[in-house]
Amino acid sequence: MEIEENARKSWRRRAIFFVISVGAVVATFVFVLPQIASYTQVWRIISDASWQDAIVLAAVTVLNIVTFAPQWSAVLPGLDFKRALYVTQASTASTYVSPGGAAVGIAVSVGMLRGYGFKSRSIALGVTLVSVWNQLALFGFPVLAFVLLALTGVTDHLLRTVAVVGFGVFVASVVAFALAFGSAHVARWTGDFIAHVVSSLRGLVRRSPAQFSGASFVDFRNETAKLLADRWQRLTIWTLVSQMTVFVVLLACLRALEVPSSQVGITEAFAAWAVLRVIGSLPITPGGIGIVELGLTGALTGFGGHKAPVVASVLVYRFLTIAPTLMVGLWGVVAWRFERGKQLPDPEPG
Fold first, then answer.
1. Dist CA 109 CA 263 (whole Å)
2. Measured at the alpha carbon of residue 287, what is the angle toward residues 252 and 295, in degrees to the nearest 5?
3. pLDDT by residue (tens digit) across 36-67?
C-alpha cells in the first residue's frame, strides 16, 4: 500500500509539473512574445536575411554541434569523435523533450556509454568531470559578464544577483572538488558519509544498503587525479570552446537579423546570454523552453535592442541550438541501437 501511495504521489507531481511546463510555454509563445513584437514583423525580418547570413548561421550551428564531442573524448580516451558526438547530442536532446533537466541527460549518457562497452567506473569518472567542468563554466560566465559590464560602466541588478550567486556556487564547487579529491582521507570520509546517507534513504523504502564505501571513493579519487594530470588542459579548453560556440550562435543571429552592435554590443549580449543560461538550467520547463526565450528577449531589449529584431534573433537562436541537436541526437540513438554491444578499441582510460 505504501509503495502504491508513493507511486500515486509521484504521478501527481509529474502531472502538476507537466501542466506548469506546458502552461509556461503556451503563455510565452501565444500571449507574451506576440505582445512584444508581432510574428508578422518577426517573420519579415527573418525572411529578409541574406544568403550570406544564412551561410554564416549554418556554419556556426555546425561548429556548435561538433565542439561538444571532444570534451567527452578528453575524459574517455577510448571514445572516438563519432560516438562522442552521438552521446552529447542525444543526451542534450533528451533535456528538450523530457522534464528533469541535467539528470535526464546524464542518464542518457550513462546508458549509451554502457552500450558502447565502457565500465561503470569509467563512466562515473567521465560524467563527474564533464558535469563539474560544465557547471563551473555555467556559473563562472555571469561573474565574467558582470566584471566586463562594470568596466564599461553598465550596471544591471539581475546580472549582479546572478553573478553573486554564480560566484558563490563557483567557489563552493571548486573548494568541494578540491577537498574531496585533493586528500585520500577526505575522500574516504566523504564516501563513507554519502554511503551512510544513501543506505539510510534506501532503508526507508526497504531497499538494500549502498554498494559503495569510502574505499571506493579513494579509488575513484586516485583515478580522477591520474586522468586530470594528463588531460585537464584538454578538458578545460574544450569545455570553454563548446560553451562559447553557443554564444557565438546567438551573436551571429543578432547581427544577421538587424540587431547591430550600436544597439546591443558583444559584452551586453554575452551578459544576457550568461544570465539566461543559468536560469534556463533550472528544470522549470524542458530545456528552459519559453523561459529562455522570454528572459533573453527582455534582457536584450533592456540593453537597447529593438523589439522585433530581438525576438527574431532569439527565436532563430533557439531553433538553431535545439532543432539540429534533436535531429543529430535522434540519429545518434538509432545508430547506437545498432552499435551497442560492440567493444570499442580502448574502452578504459589509462
1. 40
2. 60
3. 999 999 999 999 999 999 999 999 999 999 99
